[in-house]
Amino acid sequence: MNFYPLKFTPIFKERIWGGHKLRDYLNKSFDGNQIGESWELSTVENNISVVEDGEFAGLNLNELIEKFPTEILGSKSIEKYGLEFPLLFKFLDAQQDLSIQVHPNDELAKLRHNSFGKTEMWYVLQADEDSKLVVGFENKIEKEEYLTLIKEKKLVSALNEIPVKKGDTFFLETGTVHAIGAGVLIAEIQQTSDITYRLYDWDRVDANGNERELHTELALDAINFEVSNAQVKYAKIINQSTELVNCPFFKTNILPVSGEYFWKKQNDTFTVLMCTHGEFSLFFDNEGYEFEKGDTILIPAIIEEFELIGNATILEITI
Predict the structure, then answer these.
(1) I need a labelling partner for 276 at 20 to 30 A (CA). Which of 10, 77, 221, 259 fits?
(2) Which has the closest alpha carbon to 181: 167, 160, 199?
């Protein structure tokens, strides 16, 4: 088989807080005006990504892995996760504030939901003036104080709000209370999980006048009440791959390409590239592939080297 860089058809999610930046900034094509999420690469149940073009067009990611496990995933991923694809990649557009929420760790998620936990990271692609993220508590609090704040609908007063701009990066360990604020467009990299405990939703109602469900009791055992140090400081160096996050579940580097860049790796794991700015050509096996801002590409493990030419900012993710 001739393996190649794989692009998948995005899975769009309408959200009460969604907007139109996925279309305006990332060139996504969809109907509707409240699209909050573009799931770029997913094996979440009922949300399996499908290859968009090339020899494998029409195959979903699970089918591809079943046919070519080592070639796609690599031995390192198979040893750790079997034939499960361990990560989920998204772009999110918050036209309104997202709910205040928290995600459980692996142990709690396995016990309650037979799922991975949800460790994740955010990379800000664009942020309106005065937009913010909520990341953890401003000061350490006790569980009893937290419950009082929930009851009185004053939780927001205890949270750490951080003004953000393009390029800001955050690593969110499980247990970190968080929310994406209105006006922020992000790339999100996370474990393959769709488990979220909602703590507060700004008293919003849907078209039928119903509030969304809160998960106060479930969240109690999941929350880290300490202060979070989630923001990642890094240097952005042209044609150099620089580490952003290195955790047990994924590793993410940032690569600003200007001109030519020769990329080489071992063949023991897959790599995912998310283009957050600009455009580039990828040359592999005497073939050229064109990508631009908003594209997410799965590089099968069997591919060990290729050349990038262009002007772009790329997130490189592996395990």
Answers:
(1) 77
(2) 160
Query: Which residues make beta-bridge pairs with 317?
Result: 252, 272
Can you give the pLDDT at residue 206?
76
> Quick check: is 198 catalytic?
yes
Give the active site residue among 23, 112, 198, 204: 198
- pLDDT digits 0-9 by tens, 141-165: 999 999 999 999 999 999 999 999 9
Instruction: Assess contact for 193 and 116: CB atoms under 8 A.
Output: yes
pLDDT at residue 208, rounded to an integer: 82
Binding site membership for Zn(2+): which residues?
103, 120, 178
Collect all residues with Cβ–Cβ distance below 8 Å to 209 and sequence separation of at least 6. Answer: none
Give the tens place of pLDDT for each residue, 38-48.
999 999 999 99
- Strand residue runs (E) in 70-167: 87-94, 100-102, 120-127, 132-137, 159-163
Q: What residue ranges define each of the domains in the chain, with the CATH number in brackets? A: 6-232 (2.60.120.10), 242-318 (2.60.120.10)
Q: What is the chain's alpha carbon radius of gyration, rounded to the nearest angstrom? A: 20
Q: For residue 207, is pLDDT > 80?
A: no
Binding-site residue ranges? 103, 120, 178
